Amino acid sequence: MKILVTGGAGYIGSVVAHSLLASGHEVVIVDDLSTGYADNLPTGVKFHEISIHDVDQAFTQRDGFDGIVHLAGKIEVGESVVRPELYWQTNIVGTLNLLDFARRARISRFVFSSTCSMYDSSGMAPLTETTAVRPASPYAHSKHMVDTVLESEARAHGLAAVSLRYANAAGAVDRLGERHEPESHLIPIVLQVAAGRRPHLMLYGTDYPTPDGTCVRDYIHVSDLAAAHLLALQHAVPYQHEIYNLGNGNGFSNLEVIETARAVTGHPIPVHVADRRAGDAVVSVASSEKARTRLGWVPARPELADIIGDAWAFAKSHEIEERS
């Protein structure tokens, strides 16, 4: 298939693009490089440095796309609270523009990068696709609105649509890893401390009702996420919008992440304990039973040590590149 990948120079998008190419698909990437990196792009791939608002100016039906994998968008929860308009404009309006192009270009398949953070996380049970949706941020709300649009688009126009609601993407594949500025995700921050780029890690809350008192989260290797995107493209059905949660189904506490990183890196990783942060869920773990059953998706690298080990290898290699 010929696939248009939006956000293909970003962390997850670049791994998806490489995986599509390795599986024999033709790939065209769109990315405005506002948060992505040109050196993430596969060698020789067709690339357009444009916004998703401008795809209809760059492509037509004659380009012959079979599907779109849509990963471009704003992802920072904190930023979405203080600047929600960015999230409406990019995540919602940008996707509406992309869907309008898909309709006119007769593109039949659409896979969307969604999020598990839209679910009600007040409970302790694994999150399923039927868990109540209660977005706690404009970011999560924008993703849910797009999921709702895709449901209508599938019913009205026959689009074969899939929303993949992720847990926390982590890990790395060779030279493709997390590079957020500023970094806001736990595993890369822990590894920045291990590498001496931060003096210590701030640990918010050690009095939660969990075995070690810290929050529990689900981490999924970025290569396993990429594999799910390929399966979603293959299994997308016209006039249907399917939602799949993607996670390991096993939670790891913040302290488990820190201790595993200490073991993997061999560095002490100093920690400063602070009070709980408002809004942090106690436990957030995704059930991926539906994806396993219907897509045949099985995570190949579910172990936390492997996820952190791959991220550490990337962090060290990237640091060497920065110094050279």
From TrEMBL:
The keyword NAD applies. It comes from the Bacteria. It is an enzyme of class 5 (isomerase). Its EC number is 5.1.3.2. One of its GO terms (biological process) is galactose catabolic process via UDP-galactose, Leloir pathway. Keywords: Carbohydrate metabolism, Isomerase, NAD. One of its GO terms (molecular function) is UDP-glucose 4-epimerase activity. Pathway: Carbohydrate metabolism; galactose metabolism. It catalyses: UDP-alpha-D-glucose = UDP-alpha-D-galactose. InterPro entries: Epimerase_deHydtase, NAD(P)-bd_dom_sf, UDP_G4E. Its cofactor is NAD(+). Belongs to the NAD(P)-dependent epimerase/dehydratase family. This is UDP-glucose 4-epimerase. It comes from Micromonospora aurantiaca (nom. illeg.). The lineage of its organism: Bacteria, Bacillati, Actinomycetota, Actinomycetes, Micromonosporales. The gene is galE.
